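Dear Dr. H.,

I hope your travels went smoothly. While you were away I took the liberty of generating a structure for the chain from your last submission, since the lab meeting agenda had it listed for discussion. I wanted you to have the full record in hand beforehand rather than looking at slides cold. The sequence, exactly as received, is reproduced here:
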Amino acid sequence: MNEARIIDVQLDERTILWRSADIEQERRVAIFDLLEGNSFEVLTEPANGYRGPYRILLRVEDGRLAIDVKQEDDSALDTIVVALSPFRRTVRDYFAICESYYQAIRQSTPHEIETIDMARRGIHNDAAELLQERLDGKIAMDFDTARRLFTLICVLHIRG
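The corresponding predicted structure, in token form, is as follows:
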């Protein structure tokens, strides 16, 4: 089994004030899918040569994303910090399209739902690529892992 992977992911619940049922479902699915299959490797050189598997905590601190990375035994390994400012517009656009999508599911035709879902996926894909770029040289991950982590980053932005 590949050791360069995430085996546990947590969100800093102190930064999340409120979640709708739709957002809570997105969070659950993203975490489930992430743990089912991911590729994630810390590229900074750990003192002990540890290369996975990893436990991570995602949190927002002073406008930056902090990824606390721990070893399998829960001992601290590294904290990777990246600015969130490049994601602000994408997160805002993603929230807006998701709201349209949730409304469409309840009251629109299948064609309208499909059109909105394609736009939603496009924003999500762009965000995953941006996340991979921002973490370049710090963390290597596959595209699907980046997509799921972006979903969780969005959850951290919910302020009520």
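Two observations you may find useful: Strands lie at 6-11, 40-42, 54-61, 64-70, 76-83, 139-141. The longest helix spans residues 110-134.

With kind regards,
E. W.
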